[in-house]
Amino acid sequence: MVYLLALGSALFYGAADFTGGLTSRRAGAIPVVVVSQFSGMVLLGLLLPFLPDSSPSRNDLVWGAIAGLTGGIGVALLYRALAVGTMAVVAPTTAVCAVAIPVVVSVLLGERPVPLAVAGIVLGIVSIVLVSQQRSAESAANSRAASSRRLPPGVGLALVSGVAIGFFFLSLARTEPDAGMWPLLMARLVSVALFGVIALANRQSLRMPASVAALVVAAGCIDMLANALYVLAAREGPLSIVVTLSSLYPASTVLLARIVLRERLSSLQVTGVVCALAAVVLIVSGGR
Q1: pLDDT tens digits, residue range 55-108?
Q2: What is the per-residue pLDDT across 180-200, written as a single tens digit (0 to 9) for each?
């Protein structure tokens, strides 16, 4: 069940990132982050009375606030990177950083996955790298672009975003089961307040076309669902394994780009998706 929760979070994270990145191209990253994060907060607030009773401690709420700060920054940078860069490169780049931080910390804290699970973690990271590979024509174009700048468009933002999201994953994993979903609500309160202030300071309008707004609201709700599934999985299973499975979200982002935007998958990207599936098998087998 833990692995299904983590895989479910990866599926929804990928869908939310695809939708958020797509709408950021039309409405801007800050308005999209404010509206999407607010939508997720409202959804969770409406559902809390129907969830099992919980009693969050002060530490749980502090970790939630830290998650809101790091996660909000990470998502804002990610949406901006997805808007200015190539989705098939940006999402996996972010994921590599996001998975590395919690895995390293969990191992330093004494977590020791079995050999099959370790192989799955390594293969999962390899799959993320493979999914980021572009077609030869695009690679040649990026090589020419790289001659005039250090990194392709969006990659620098993606790296910083990945670090922030890694600490977001780590912060939420530090909350206790008795806290329920309150740390997530605290996280959303912090992120909405932060980017609401930024939008006001920059006198940035949150208005957007109705069709775009509907997609932004959907992205926020999907992202909240992904967060909830991740929190449940991280509290029950080994962090190194759960965060690896959750960080396979670029596969769904790339597949959605293929289906919706008609982007073609290179042979390396197809190999990456296959490796992601193999990683899941290894991790699940090692956890039995």
Answers
A1: 899 999 999 999 999 999 998 898 888 888 777 777 777 877 787 788 778 878
A2: 999 999 999 999 999 999 999
Q: Do residues 259 and 14 make contact, with C-beta atoms less than 8 angstroms apart?
A: no
Nearest Cα residue to 65 out of 176, 189, 179, 164: 189
CA dihedral 233, 237, 238, 239 (to 10 degrees): 20
**Is the Cα dihedral 34, 36, 37, 41 positive or negative?**
positive
d(CA 87, CA 45) in angstroms, rounded, equals: 31
Q: Which residues contact 123 (CB under 8 A, 6 or more apart)?
A: 275, 278, 279, 282
Reading the block at residue 117, the tokens are 């699970």
pLDDT digits (tens, 9 = 90+) for 19-38: 988 898 888 888 999 999 99
Which residue is listed with tokens 């039309």?
26
What does the block give as tokens for 125?
A: 């990271």
241 versus 172: the higher-pLDDT residue is 172
Q: What is the DSSP string of the chain?
A: -HHHHHHHHHHHHHHHHHHHHHHHHHH-HHHHHHHHHHHHHHHHHHHGGGSPP----HHHHHHHHHHHHHHHHHHHHHHHHHHHS-HHHHHHHHHHHHHHHHHHHHHHTT----HHHHHHHHHHHHHHHHHTPPPHHHHHHHHHHHHHSSS-TTHHHHHHHHHHHHHHHHHHHTS-GGGTTHHHHHHHHHHHHHHHHHHHHTT------HHHHHHHHHHHHHHHHHHHHHHHHHHHS-HHHHHHHHTTHHHHHHHHHHHHS-PPPPHHHHHHHHHHHHHHHHHHHHT-
Provide the 10 A C-beta neighbour count for residue 282: 20
